[in-house]
Amino acid sequence: MDNSEYVERLGRQRPAKFKTLASEVGFCFSIMTSQIMAEYFISGFNVIIPVLAKDLDIPPSATVWPASAFALTAGSSLLIFGRFADQYGGYIVYTLGLLWHLTWTLIAGFSTNQLMLNFCRALQGFGPAAFLSSGIMLLGSSYRPGPRKNIVFSIYGGCAPVGFFSGIFVSGLSGQWLTWRWYFWIGAILVGFSLATAVIFMPSDFKSKRLETADKPVQMDWLGAACLFAGLVLTFYAVNDGAHAPQGWSTPYIIVCFILGILLLGVSVYVEGWVATQPLLPASLFKVSQMKPFLLALFFSYGVLGTWLLYTTLYAENIMSAQPMQLVAWFVPFAVGGLVLSPLGGYIFHKVPGTVLLVISGVAWIVAPLLFAIAPQGASYWAYTFPAMICGTLGIDITYNIANVFVTSKLPDDEQGLAGAVCNSILFLGVSFFLGFADLTAAETASKGSRQSYKAVFWYAVGCATVSVVLLVGFVKIEEAKSELKEGEESPA
Q1: How many separate domains does the chain show?
Q2: In which domain of life is the source organism classified (predicted)?
Q3: DSSP 319-377
Q4: Quick one: pLDDT band at residue 282, thresholds 50, 70, 90?
């Protein structure tokens, strides 16, 4: 057997850590469902906001904050939990993250006012930060580059639109026939299934991780972590709240938060680059070919995702007068598209250059908000909304899958926690950051009426998507995700 055939066979085999197919399926099921639940609590909350806001007396100007608080805390702490995963293994961080998420999801269902809801939503975000970074670490370290890994990561990425639709479905069901509290409680039950599956099927990697790092222990960069987390929270708080502060961006506390946030981020850059012996973001990450422009393009692309999800929902409810369950039906193509693209992507990622797929995805992301931006009054669902849903699932599903495969394949096993953190922190921070400016766009154009205000936001999303495509076409070249030996492995003589 020649070297290429040997490597190809390795890329198709079940990893040795899974003694049976059932153990592999159980392992993957837990991680896939955790991805579904992360998306569930992003999408569904947007649909339940009108009912929830009425019950808790939340003014319209304050509804964006509880929607973005979840993404903000998740994105700001992902690197920290990624480091914990590299220190103690993915199993501990993953299961504790699910348990934490389950706890605060249950409590959120008992919220009695806006402050309690915001507090629970913010604390909820630490759960996905833990189980998403460690989940990708567990997947990335379990599967070598090749077709099997491509298929697994494609299914994982396809769980994003499924989770999105699940959130829409349960929130629509709760808002129209139950109570908004059941949106959280049903979500808690589903998180419980993911946690139980992990405990039963997932092998612990604590001992192997400690042995692996015995000669060179992985340490937490506490100073860099504190500055990075505080800087991101303050900066993104200013961005998200600036549009609705008493004096807008001129409000003193907005200015102070923004300046302090930028200064702390500057300090974190200094600490990471020149002080920390084991920085959260090692310089080696950015030395990987294509990594810097790729991550920047992802940041813009995920910003379109957050803006498109929220304002598509608001446009459908407030302008197209869609009822909760009708909105569920409208988003069916988005979920089905993800289910189709998942297996398809797994079969073609190792045959088609990643750049080609990313450009297709990027163009779809331009078209998705564009269709809403140009839709006339009383526009047909089939002429505008339906194709926008198809483009939406093309936009997020392909991009997310390639990002996960690319980053985890380029980093060694001892940095897979970092890989998972980077993949998801870019997503959550992109959602929160660009959503803040989308809200600002809506606020500045509110005098033109809700419909024109929403359209202005969609044009803003088109601009962000265009920037992402320009970066991908001009600066990123990703080859096919072929079978390769893992770092440290040798081919047979």
Answers
A1: 2
A2: Eukaryota
A3: TS---HHHHHHHTHHHHHHHHHHHHHHHHHTTTS-HHHHHHHHHHHHHHHHHHHHHPPT
A4: confident
256 and 295 inside one domain = no
Assign 460 a pLDDT band (cuts: 50, 70, 90). very high
Q: Report how far Cα 289 is from the mean position of its chain's Cα atoms.
A: 23
Assigned domain for 424 exists? yes
Check pLDDT > 90 for residue 51: no
Asked if 160 and 260 sit in the same domain, the reply is no
Query: Does the residue 7 lie in any domain?
Result: no
- Residue 477's CB: how many other CB atoms inside 10 A? 15
Q: Which of 257, 359, 277 lies closest to 83 in space, CA to CA?
A: 277
Helices (H), 57-125: 64-88, 90-108, 114-124
| DSSP classification of residue 113 | S
- Cβ(393)–Cβ(332) below 8 Å: no
pLDDT in tens, 305-356: 888 888 888 888 888 887 777 888 888 887 777 667 666 665 666 566 777 7
Amino acid at 139: L
Which tokens in the block code for residue 76?
Answer: 């700001």
Rounded CA-CA distance 41/164 in Å is: 8
> Which of 200-204, 276-280, 281-285 shows the lowest per-residue confidence on average (mean pLDDT)?
281-285
Residue pair 47/171 in contact by the 8 Å Cβ criterion: yes
